[in-house]
Amino acid sequence: MKADDLTARIIELKSRRNAVILAHNYQLAEVQDIADFVGDSLELSRKAAETDADVIVFCGVHFMAETAKILSPHKTVLLPDPRAGCPMADMIDVARLREFKARYPGLPVVAYVNTTADVKAESDICCTSANAVKVVESLDAPAVLFVPDKCLGAYVASRTSKRIVLYPGYCPTHHRILPEYVLEQKAAHPDAVVIAHPECTPEVLALTDVIASTSGIVRHIAQSEEAEFIVCTERGLMHRLQQDNPNKRFYNPGNLNICPNMKKITLEKVAWSLQDMVYSIEVPEDIIRKARAAIDGMVGIG
Ligand code: 13P
Ligand code: SF4
Description:
It contains 15 helices and twelve strands. It is of the alpha/beta class. The chain has a four-stranded parallel sheet with strand order 2-1-3-4, with helices on both faces. Helix 6 (117-121) links the parallel strand 5 and strand 6 (125-127). The structure holds 1,3-dihydroxyacetonephosphate (13P) and iron/sulfur cluster (SF4).
């Protein structure tokens, strides 16, 4: 089917199903373009909690759709490709989290939203890259366990006086943004602002001017007087940046910054998802209840 026909089909099915399409900032350009809302993990969680649609088609990865289901358990939440996972989220499971907790008894657990529902259910509070520092600061404890992203955790540690115990997880896509790629771009574009997602390594973050979540990057660039940016994150964000800022220039550090899981969602799969009502995300009730408490804590924090 041609792209225009597919788009028309998606619009027709969306209205028939009373569905809303939410897309993460790393989605393919054409998927972002048909979405009702494009945003970062925190914004998408908020939208999922607020929507009065019957069906949420979540164009992102599994943990994001699961978070939407936890926040809207009576709605149907569809992930157009069930294989769209997050390797970082898979670096921790309940057994490993319990082991980690047993080594540091009494410390609260802050779980990055990039975790499975089971892991969230075993954690005290969640965070996203947009609110991680605020979430850690909100806890009445001098030290916290931070899972699973050691890079986001190290970034938070640099912004708080609390002791952060790191778990050794990481994002394979952000790890492929090497400091030498950033240095190459800086040499080629000496006036460019270097802006990065906190999933980048500490070595890359040390070379940057601004650190923010994906939508934080979008907002910073929209408000900036500067004309050139080296953007250290998954390259799907470039689509929105170029659309919103046609007169600004953006440079990619290297060409390995592609999350293959985010790219598993295509227009065809969105259409099939609405047509066949697949793949429905299901989370057991007791996990929903416990994970919800951890997510609600973070959604309330700005
Ligand atoms: P954001 O919450 O900043 O959108 O990041 C989500 C993510 O998976 C980054 O790799
Ligand atoms: Fe997971 Fe990294 Fe992909 Fe984000 S970019 S979904 S953290 S693998």
